[in-house]
Amino acid sequence: MRIVSGKYGARPLKTLAGKTTRPTSDKVRGAVFNMIGPYFEGGRVLDLYAGSGGLAIEAVSRGMEEAVLIERDRKAQAIIRDNIAMTKEADKFQLLAMDARQALSSLTGPFDLVFLDPPYADQEIVAMVTELCQRQLLAEEVMVVCETDKAVQLPEEIAELGIWKEKIYGISKVTVYVR
Predict the structure, then answer these.
(1) Domain 26-178 carries which CATH code?
(2) What is the per-residue burial (b if ≥16 Cβ within 10 Å, else e) of 35-63?
(3) Where, if anywhere, are coiled coils annotated (predicted)?
(4) Of 11, 48, 88, 94, which one has the greatest count of Cβ atoms within 10 A?
(5) Geometric angle at alpha carbon 108, from 60 and 138, rounded to 5°
(6) pLDDT tens per residue across span 139-178
(7) pTM (2 decimals)?
(8) Are strands 93-96 and 66-70 parallel, antiparallel or unpaired?
(9) Is the dihedral of CA 177, 46, 56, 54 positive or negative?
């Protein structure tokens, strides 16, 4: 795996071996950013289930100013630290070693871009988006990008957000919510 585009483009990303995380492939990551950007002029990104950190690092590579990554798995945290070090701009990243639900109570917003890619067995997107809205952690022009199994049907609206775009890539579905 590698960073697809931007200032860190083509740099390699480490991933965790095994089935505890499902890193978003280069192809899908590139397609996601083509859907939502592909480039940004500043802003903050939140990745609630960071895995290898690839999505948040790609967002900063493409112009986001800072990223907050949430990951509870210790082995994945070590991979994220290595991937952040590869950017040579560690000050743009904050890794919180905790569960996504715990993290919501300690975060301060607003976030302009949010990635929700929970383990397929643990679909809690509706609850997380609702809580993000209730805690006022989302910017007015926010994009919330959800990656699920293609069979998962997310609601048309969650809290004050509605589906803007939705695409299927292989076994994955990407759903983008906006205000």
Answers:
(1) 3.40.50.150
(2) bbbbebeebbbbbbbbbbbbbbbbbbbbe
(3) none
(4) 48
(5) 70
(6) 999 999 999 989 999 999 999 999 999 999 988 899 999 9
(7) 0.94
(8) parallel
(9) negative
